[in-house]
Task: inverse folding
């Protein structure tokens, strides 16, 4: 579901949200509208997503999750260098060997930059953080394997009201973090078997 925006929203914000309606995403990605953050910008909207191993099974394991937030300030904000700011969050669990790689932060940031470039976008006024958390279990839980959780937080400024390629770039980032192989244009993935 794509957010409609508040009734008093400026036409540019409404057009921006409408540009998201016809975005075609991989079937493994399940979107839902969630409340946008308050007090960051006069107009906000947000989507939450889960990437599931089996697109048709609602009980399937989540490979990654995240949020896509649209911020709009008609007056602009100096730090944004524009009137639309996009904020993303992506979370995924990784194998311990991958998570211990000292280059993981640089690699994860390159996923973000590459996802934007693949959608024909530049990372205008982009910034972000990459966080990894290593979980080790002890005592009665010592049989659990080590787990590494990766979190990618990024924001950038959209140059215009067409947010469709930005949502597509975020979807690519989600799928990359989830470990899904890239799909060539026009190819439909087959569901995974367990």
Result:
């Amino acid at each position: 579901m794509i957010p409609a925006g508040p009734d008093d929203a400026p036409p540019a914000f409404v057009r921006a949200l409408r540009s998201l309606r016809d975005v075609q995403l991989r079937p493994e990605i399940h979107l839902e509208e969630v409340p946008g953050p308050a007090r960051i910008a006069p107009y906000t909207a947000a989507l939450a997503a889960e990437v599931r191993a089996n697109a048709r099974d609602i009980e399937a394991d989540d490979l990654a999750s995240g949020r896509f937030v649209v911020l709009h300030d008609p007056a602009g904000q100096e730090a944004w260098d524009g009137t639309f700011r996009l904020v993303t969050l992506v979370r995924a669990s990784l194998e311990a060997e991958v998570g211990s790689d000292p280059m993981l932060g640089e690699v994860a940031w390159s996923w973000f930059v590459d996802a934007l470039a693949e959608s024909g976008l530049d990372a205008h006024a982009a910034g972000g953080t990459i966080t990894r958390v290593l979980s080790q279990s002890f005592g009665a839980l010592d049989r659990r394997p080590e787990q590494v959780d990766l979190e990618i937080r990024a924001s950038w400024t959209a140059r215009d009201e067409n947010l469709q390629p930005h949502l597509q770039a975020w979807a690519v980032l989600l799928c990359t973090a989830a470990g899904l192989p890239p799909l060539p244009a026009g190819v439909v993935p087959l569901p995974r078997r367990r």
Summary: The mean pLDDT is 87.
